[in-house]
Amino acid sequence: MTSAASEPRRFRSPWQLRLEARLEQPAWLNLAVSLGAVAVALVIGGIILAVVGGDPLRAYGFMLRASFGNPGVLSDTLTKATPLILVSLAAVVAFRMRLWNIGAEGQFFMGAFGASAVVLTPLLPEGTSAWITLPAMALAGIAAGAVWGFIPGWLKARFGVNEIISTLMMNYIAVSWNNFFIFAVWSEGGFQMSPQFPREAWLPRLTDLGASVPAFRGLTTHLGLAFGVVAAGLVAWILYRSRWGYEIRLLGDNPRAGRYAGISITRNTILVLMLSGGLAGLAGMSEISGVVHRLQGAISPGYGFTGIIIAWLAKLNPLIVVPVSVIFGALILAGREIQPSGLPMLIQGIILVCLIASDFLLRYRPRLVRRAVEA
Amino acid sequence: MDAITILHAGVASGTVLLFATLGEILAERSGVLNLGLEGMMLIGAMSAFSTALATGNPWLGVLVAMLVAGVLSQVHGVIAIQFQADQVVSGLALTFLGTGLSLVFGEGLSRAGAVSLLPTYSLPGLSAIPLLGPILFEDQSIMVYLGYLLVPAMWYFIYRTRPGLHLRAVGEFPAAADALGIQVARLRYLYVFIGGMFAGLSGATISLAVSPGWFSQLTTSGQGWIAIGLVIFAQWDPIRAAAGSYAFGALRRMILDIQGPTTLLGLRNPFFYNPYWGFFLQMLPYAFTIIVLVIGSREAFRKRLGAPAALGLPYIRGERGL
Amino acid sequence: MDQPPLAVAMHGISKRFPGVIANDQVDFELRHGEIHALLGENGAGKSTLMNILTGLYRPDQGSLTVNGKLVEFRSPRDAIQHGIGMVHQHFMLVPTQTVTENILLGLAEPRFHLDLSRYHTIIAELGERFGLQVDPRARIWQLSVGEQQRVEILKMLYRGAQVLILDEPTAVLAPTEIDDLFDTLRSMVAGGKSIVFISHKLDEVGAVADRITVLRKGKATAAGLAADSVDKAELARLMVGREVLFRLDKAPAKPGEVVLRVQGVEAQNDKGLPALRGVDLQVRAGEIVGLAGVAGNGQAELAEAISGQRPISAGQVEMFGEALVTPGRSRLRPSQRIRRLIEAGVSHVPEDRTHVGTAPNLSLTDNVIMKEYRLAPIARGLSIDPRAADDHARDLRQSFDIMAPSIKTPARMLSGGNLQRLILAREISGKPALMVAVQPTRGLDVGAIESVQHLLLEQRDRGAGVLLISEELEELISLSDRLYVIHGGRIMGELTEPDPDPERIGLMMTGTPQSELPPADEP
Q1: Are C203 and C312 in the same domain?
Q2: Cβ of C229 under 8 Å from any chain B Cβ?
Q3: Which one-letter DSSP state was computed for residue C251?
Q4: How far is it, in rounded angstroms, from Cα C346 to Cα B38?
Q5: Whether residue C104 sits in one domain with residue C230
Q6: Closest-CA residue in chain A for C336?
Q7: Which chains share 3+ C-beta pairs under 8 angstroms with A?
Q8: Is residue A20 within 8 Å of C18, Cβ to Cβ?
Q9: What is the pLDDT of residue C66?
Q10: Do the chains contact at B89 and A177, CB–CB below 8 Å?
Q11: Do A165 and B222 touch (CB under 8 A)?
Q12: HSE on the CB side for B98, CA within 13 Å?
């Protein structure tokens, strides 16, 4: 039994707005509400932009053109979407078990570190073919990210440490860690970056095929996109088809029931955060190897945090993450040239707020009810 | 590297953490988890700075900072209390919102020039006390003295007053409070607002007193998150919050100072000769926060105390139990 | 003759919630100085009616008068101001705060500063006056259940309540404590208070009430009946609407080998205090063994120990002679221990359907495969075969009559009775060797109760051993082939006769070991 969420006001109109719990949620409503939330967010963002002196319609139009207007920018959008897909999957996996991994950013950095270490230490002799180098880098990236997820996972399983704060702290630690190596160990000629990677350590891009396919010349989309799409399929299989995924979903919905069914909360806390960290680490490797081609301080405009919003917008569905990541990739790409520079983050924040608020409409239905006459 | 200097600076920068932590203690004691502190502090810092710049009056800056942060945290309040949505995600959204807004509206502020700051004072009689005097009462911002007063005041409020009793009840067992006529939702909105105001105060303390200026996200560099960790370490108690905040403040100062001298404790100072080791020093506050969390969690488990029982759970009248 | 105004009069009260009509044109009158029982089974609308009286809900229709004056309560505060106070079944006490703080909660006095020591004295005196002694400085979690109830009553008396509503007050009390409570109620009434006593237990109602009102499915089937004018059978009929059989039709038991043996088990509860102090019992195949006891004497911990969810500090739990739960840090992780027991054929129907037994947002299918998802045909290597799972869910939905729109419906949409059917379906489909059922019929309507009881009997007839842990003595007596009684974490005795004497059971429930009971009387 639930009670009315609002009580009648002093003014006694014959009608009364009651909020009733919905007994069922039609699928179309979910989509409609999400799209509505995004639309409202864009409007609010536009208003704020107008307040600081910008022109919202021109800005939004510019953003659309700058991200989808021609094959070149479309390719750039996909390139930006690539790490987003992976970090969003990292968030999806963790959030499904109600583990709030806010550390995807740090795990991303560590993944970049791991991949760079393979090349820069160097772990493999010079000239090793890309067929060996790239998988080694990917494995190193995943491993480094997984370790970075393991630590907060173990702390939570063993001591009950709140993972929101521990994963966040690990973000800052990861940045300092990378900075040390960038400035002190691998620095090139005193600059704040490592030497450029050899060609074998570059993920193949479409533009590499430019000689045989002229249309691909200049297109920056790289193999990392395939990583992302494959990972999305893999995560979907894990969550919806595998036994482990069932355990994750059960633990996320009701940990006590999971325990009652004989599922280990501690083991899964650690494993899920390792998987989540590994996915984010792979994102780091992909960005380093596919776009930047060296280790430097600025490799992420907050991908880890955007990933959380994408995961929420996709309602924690790994397949829907892919198209949503493309949209946010567009937002980040176009947003780079927009003044003021804080606008993309602000819009992301507003979208998240509207999304959460709109969840309310999915659970309750407003109804106009004729007030009963008292006896 | 001198203990007095470090502790003196520690108390100053610890005050920033203290305000944010105290505010969050109030909000969480009422049952609402507000993870948006980092964003609230940033927008507080930015509004304080820009208001002081525009009007020449730092006090007005403080006031505006508190109001802006308080109002913004009501967004989270509405989502958490009225819409009863997940408080973790809502808090994160608030962080994005606060950070984004402060970056957008703070565009160009870092180049804006100097601003009149909040005054600093030395208290004549008290600063003569050996050891503690120069640390606590000499040449400290007025905000620091405010902090000294707030800690015992808040302790008294929470444990020895009627509104404090109601606050605790609302966070532990809202159904019981409701059945006795206490307005659970209204109180929660109030304390979320107050918590936001404290976060704004904290931000103003940064930009107008302790680390004057506006440096985009570097202004706070994660102190909002550290404050949330400190709340757990403090076991939701103002006195422990003060201890933790000042200790962290001292740590941050120590990290800076330790790289200065050529010798450390009579030995060659590795941080002087290897300046890049400074990056590891930078990790310390964050690593310490984790350690502090481990201690706090184990203690809570041991003493069977811990968070207010209804923390993070929306209250719906008519449901059995909480 | 001018009659004094009624303490409380409710006329034509109606209240509906989404999907259910809780109160339908109900009339209720409370006279000054009487104990008025409000009788009805779970879900009949008693709590809703009283929640309206105490201002927690607003009626959709109807009126409310207190002492002859028409009133409208906007909140519990209004009701308290009019002298109406409720002692809830689930206590509304803040565990970490002291008795005094709990009693002072919500009051306008003291204005700001809390002078606790002064109020400690005041509360202690209040307790003395009404015979409800309790230590005002104690924190609620340190008090026994009976003492907590006293605090709840004191809370209302402190606020000057003249009308006291008690919601199922005896649910958590031992028989002697119940007698004490009834004495307290009678003396309060002699002192001028009026009391409403909500219950679904016919015996108690007869013992203490002056008048009775019966609710069934939201309607009042009888209002203000004098207690000595009706007998139990008629009350039952008013409650349920048809002849209620107090005895179940059951074939004699054919017990086989020993399935479960609990030997000398000791364990702690969540607070670290000893909950089980050396429990010995056994269950054989083909029998229902009941465990009677007042809530809080170790039953919950015993069920958890047997199903592996609670570690034990001494003794052992054996299934078919093999020790599966042993004390101390075994090589097994808790999850492995629990799984081992599930695989050995132990099924557990938990007390808490929503927080332990099911996952509210997962579908029916997902809930149904909770114990079997590791086994073929539902498991297929590392994955789960969705078709096999769905087929299984459809089968169970049909054979157990689970009312749900589809197998994809989330479990939280199911009513209490259907949720229990879901849990039973799941547990039974694994053909368990032992079923541990804890309070399986709590909160269910009569139809659901009957089907649950029949399912348990079916399992017993199939050859499973059933350990039935319940607070409903009648249910235990009618279903069990043998009966243990637990008190303070120890077994007080074992009764094997077909018609055990409830009085002897009651004595054991309050701490008298079987060996010390007076010899059974011959009729």
Answers
A1: no
A2: no
A3: P
A4: 50
A5: yes
A6: A262
A7: B, C
A8: yes
A9: 92
A10: no
A11: no
A12: 37
pLDDT in tens, C281-315: 999 999 999 999 877 789 999 999 999 999 999 99
First to last CA, chain A: 24
Q: How confident is the model at residue C145 (pLDDT cuts 50, 70, 90)?
A: confident
Partner B, chain C 88-117, Cβ-Cβ below 8 Å: 88, 90, 92-97, 101-102, 104-107, 110-114, 116
The pTM (predicted TM-score) of the whole model is 0.84
Rg of chain A on CA atoms, in Å: 23
Instruction: Mark whether C397 and C472 lie in a shared domain.
Output: no
Task: Give the span between the Cα atoms of C251 and C237, in whole angstroms.
Answer: 26
Domain termination site, one of C431, C448, C465: C431
Sort out which chain B residues have CB atoms less than 8 A from C165's CB and list them.
Answer: none
C25 lies in which domain range? Answer: 8-240
Residues of C in contact with A263 (CB under 8 A): 335
Show residues of chain B in contact with A22, CB under 8 Å: none
List Cβ neighbours of A288 (8 Å cut-off, separation of 6 or more): A111, A112, A115, A116, A141, A197, A294, A295, A299
Residues C427 and C453 in one domain: no
Q: Would you call A47 helix, strand, or coil by DSSP?
A: helix
- The DSSP symbol for C290 reads E
* B320 lies within 8 A of chain C by CB: yes
C483 is a domain residue: yes
Fold of B3-303: ABC transporter involved in vitamin B12 uptake, BtuC (1.10.3470)
Q: B146 CB near a chain C CB, below 8 Å?
A: no
Which tens digit of pLDDT belongs to each residue from C359-402? 999 999 999 999 999 988 889 889 999 999 999 999 999 999 89
Give Cα C399 to chain centroid, integer Å.
Answer: 28
Domain-located, residue C2: no
- How confident is the model over A66-92, as pLDDT tens digits? 888 888 888 999 999 999 999 999 999
With beta carbons less than 8 A apart as the criterion, state whether B43 and B203 touch.
yes
What are A69's two structure tokens?
């207007």
CA atoms within 13 A on the CB side of B319: 10
CA-CA distance, A335 to A306, in Å (whole number)?
A: 13
Selection from A282, A281, A278, A251 nearest residue A264 by Cα: A251
Split at pLDDT 50, 70, 90, the class of B164 is: very high
Rounded to an integer, the average pLDDT of C487-508 is: 84
Q: Cα–Cα distances in Å, from C456 out to A309, B216, C349, C350?
A: 49, 67, 11, 14
pLDDT in tens, A102-148: 999 999 999 999 999 999 988 888 888 889 999 999 999 999 999 99
- State whether C169 and C94 are in the same domain: yes
Regarding whether C175 and C279 lie in a shared domain, the answer is no
| Amino acid B172: pLDDT | 92
Residues of A in contact with B106 (CB under 8 A): 342
Ramachandran assignment for C217, one of left (phi > 0), alpha (psi -120 to 50 degrees), beta (any other): left
Which of A3, A161, A176 has the CB atom closest to B280's CB atom?
A: A176
* C-beta atoms surrounding C196 within 10 Å: 26
